[in-house]
Design a protein that fits this description.
Oligomer: single chain
Strand order of the largest sheet: 1-2-4-3-5-6-7-8
CATH architecture: 3-Layer(aba) Sandwich
Order of helices and strands: EEEHEHEHEHHHHHEHEHH
Number of domains: 1
CATH class: Alpha Beta
CATH topology: Rossmann fold
Shape: globular
Helix content: 40-55%
Radius of gyration: 17 Å
Amino acid sequence: MASFRVGDNELYYERSGSGEPLLLIMGMSGTHLSWGEPFLDALRRDFEIVVYDHRGMGKSGRTEPPFTIVDLAEDAVALLDELGWDSAHVIGISMGGMVAQELVVRHPERVRTLTLGCTYAGGAGATLTSAEVGTRLFESMQSGDRERALRVGWEVNVSRRFAGDEQQFAEFRRRALEVPANVPTIMAQMQAIMPHDTSGRLGEIRVPTLVVHGTEDEMLSYRNGEAIARAIPGARLELLDGVGHLFFWEEPDRSAELVREHASSRAAT
């Protein structure tokens, strides 16, 4: 557990495991706890992993919005520098996948392999969260009813089947309450996402890329994952049937194995 400064911002991170370096970039409203222990524990068997909180989120210092996805990508580069990692395997999910796209396009030499999960590239044909789901989330966050916000956040981020697992929800809730979300920063993250568009630059990516998406993702349609995989030369697409946005929470072992196989394929070439 440590923190460091990037300009005026203080970022919190945690480092664990052993093996090749793996940087995990979380999505909108999430913190280092949002990955879930089963997924991280499976990764620690083969990687030295680092999870962190974006500026203004979790245990990172509060920040003054606005900021951009590019700003968040440069935060990730600063973290690699802080860790002394010339390069690393990188996983980015949802908004974190957008950050990872900017990271690899701007600093390709820092990325060994790239895994883009449940994310979006912008451009023609891309689809953000539906108005219905977005309204549910916004109204729950603005209601002042923390329990309602947690429940809605859970329901729209996992499949309908998984949403009924009260034991899983209890763990999701516990982690969310342990490090509460900062609503003004979430709003700033939403504003940063809106203009994101790497669609015309994905063809520049030359690092081995894995794209993972659940077919029941209500936050970002799996069609986005299909479009990203088509645009990146040689990218591999894995669609997880019947799985929601938080695929790594619903299928932690399977998700970790996909990352492991992907990293190993680079070592074999």
